[in-house]
Amino acid sequence: MPAKSQKVSNATKSIPHAQPKPPSLNWPSFEPKISPEDLFLHELYSAQIVTISNFWTSSLCKKYIKFLRNLPLVTTPGKPRRGEAVRVNDRFQIEDAQFAERLWSETGLKDLICAEEEKDVGDGVAASPPRSVQDRWGGTPVGLNPNIRIYRYSKGQFFDQHYDDSNNLIHPGPPPQAACTTWTLLLYLTSPTDGCLGGETVFYPDPPAAGEKSKKGQASPDPIVVGIETGMALLHKHGKECMLHEGREVLEGEKWVIRSDLCVRR
Q1: Per-residue pLDDT reduced to its tens digit, 54-99
Q2: ∠ Cα 11 232 62 (to 5°)
Q3: CA nearest 87: which of 4, 16, 193?
């Protein structure tokens, strides 16, 4: 397992052979979509991993896959640059502030992210004070990174263990403002119900500090395996507090992912 101080991979940067940037894309609408009232954040691992089940409907995912198949996807090099993790997939990347804003504001994501956390109550007694929006997301959220990435993993493709870097940028707004990315956003468009087997996202929590042991006496916690679900959004913290993670090999079918990042005011 690579040391965290070592730069293993930066999943937010372009691959060595950049593809030509098209002038614009006529992205499909977000219909049909789930009512925002039916969307919920599920904290899978405290302050690190959050999921939103059924963020997109199955029919919307199918509509987007049909659209994405027509994009000029580029296969990543089989041999990574020095210090980067092995990644084998097909990808497309575009700067599209308008699509990022739509994904942020038209899907209910903005309301979920910016909502105040409710008190954790057990047996009528508050177990812990709620965190502020700024504490939860590493700053005041302003939207999504306009750097949109499309990933397709076919049978035999994978993304080896790595960390995601945080990046500084000028978020287009309006108004434009200095921002940085704090959480990775992955939107899965396929799952085993669509014939995609494998491809789980697996996180490796840091082992206990020196001299400490987990309750079971283990030196390291068990990996956290997140199976892909059609239409599920996964958010995980990146940058200095990023957890080591990987995308397991796809065994059958295709794994389609839309990737962006949560941006906060800098």
Answers
A1: 999 999 999 999 999 999 999 987 666 666 788 999 999 999 999 9
A2: 95
A3: 16
CA distance 90 to 162: 18
Say if residues 49 and 203 touch (Cβ distance below 8 Å): yes
Which of 79, 103, 74 minimizes the C-alpha distance to 89? 74
SS3 per residue for the chain:
CCCCCCCCCCCCCCCCCCCCCCCCCCCCCCCCCCCHHHCCCEEEECCCEEEECCCCCHHHHHHHHHHHCCCCCEECCCCCCCCCCCEECEEEEEECHHHHHHHHHCCCHHHHHHCCCCCEEECCEEEECCCCHHHHHCCCEEEECCEEEEEEECCCCEEEEECCCCCEEEECCCCCEEEEEEEEEEEECCCHHHCCEECCEEEECCCCCCCCCCCCCCCCCCCEEECCCCCCEEEEECHHHCCEEEECCEEECCEEEEEEEEEEEC
In this model, does residue 125 exceed pLDDT 70?
Answer: no
Q: What is the pLDDT of residue 220?
A: 78
Q: Which of 118, 119, 117, 137 is nearest to 128 (CA)?
A: 119
pLDDT digits (tens, 9 = 90+) for 184-233: 999 999 999 999 999 999 999 988 766 555 455 556 799 999 999 999 99
Q: At which residue do the structure tokens 């960390």 appear? A: 163
